[in-house]
Design brief:
about 290 residues, alpha/beta, TIM Barrel, two-stranded antiparallel ribbon, 12 helices, about 45% helix
């Protein structure tokens, strides 16, 4: 193993808990499960919250893998790399973090290649400025990046048009985009300091949908039939997570971040604990 890789938590899994319990208590509970690194996401970076994150990281030995920011505000008043860059850089230095990640494409870019190219060029310019401060800018994929334009995947276009951006590889969304996560991790070796570990679970069609079909409501049935994928605790879905982790390490990942976008009513701390136990069972205790 070329470098010490750490398994941590993607903070958006606990976005409600960060809001309800506060950052200090939320990070304390993550630490008690056994995780020792976290990506901060969907947490309002007020001075009070930054101070709590700093206190918790110091008291619990919690590494801040990365912070999150959009290129531009997606909501009115939201911090972004084009409106609050100096403040975001200062937060990185306060929290000893050297990566900021953009969580998704601007909404308008999902429908326009021209808007994607505009995003790439603007993000690359920001990445150049941040690099001078010792901070790297990363981009997190979903499935939309596996749309093809003239036979080329959008993710590959982003890599070419914004060469200073690293890629935060989300293996669930790669699978949902129709690619093999292991193969894409190979293709992006050296560009993937951050990897999101998230399983991909198929669920049965509901009885309610079958009942609706028998009533002649084909639309309800087909909606259930074509939308039966869930975000899942690690080990409860169908991804080859051991192969994914091994390739992530081979491709140069620094942080493997457990994420679950939706726990479907289950306490997300319990879901993270189940994923933690699974990762220990398959041999990765030393990475926490």
């Amino acid at each position: 193993m070329a470098q010490q890789v750490k398994i941590g938590v993607q903070g958006s899994t606990l976005k409600d808990q960060f809001n309800e319990l506060g950052p200090y208590e939320t990070l304390k509970r993550i630490s008690e499960i056994g995780y020792n690194s976290v990506e901060i996401s969907q947490v309002e970076m007020t001075p009070e919250n930054v101070a709590e994150i700093k206190q918790a990281s110091e008291e619990f030995g919690m590494e801040i893998a990365s912070l999150s920011a959009g290129l531009k505000p997606m909501l009115e008043g939201q911090e972004s790399l084009t409106t609050h860059l100096d403040k975001i850089i200062e937060d990185c230095k306060t929290l000893n973090a050297d990566i900021v990640r953009i969580g998704m494409l601007p909404f308008e870019a999902m429908a326009s290649l021209d808007k994607v190219l505009e995003f790439c060029h603007q993000a690359n310019a920001v990445a150049e400025t941040m690099k001078e401060q010792g901070i790297k800018l990363y981009y997190h994929n979903h499935h939309i990046e596996f749309v093809k334009y003239d036979g080329r995947y959008l993710l590959d276009i982003i890599r070419e048009e914004a060469p200073l951006l690293g890629i935060e590889m989300d293996v669930h969304w790669v699978q949902r985009g129709g690619r093999n996560p292991v193969e894409v991790l190979k293709e992006y070796a050296g560009k993937v300091d951050l990897v999101h570990l998230k399983d991909y679970r198929m669920v049965p069609v509901t009885q309610e949908a079958v009942d609706e079909l028998q009533k002649g409501n084909m639309e309800v049935f087909m909606n259930a039939f074509t939308n039966n994928i869930e975000f899942a605790e690690l080990g409860t879905g169908n991804l080859d997570l051991k192969a994914i982790i091994e390739q992530s390490i081979e491709s140069g990942a620094r942080y493997l971040l457990v994420e679950q976008d939706d726990t479907y009513g289950r306490d997300p701390f319990e879901s993270l604990a189940e994923s933690y136990e699974y990762l220990k069972e398959i041999g990765y205790s030393e990475l926490f």
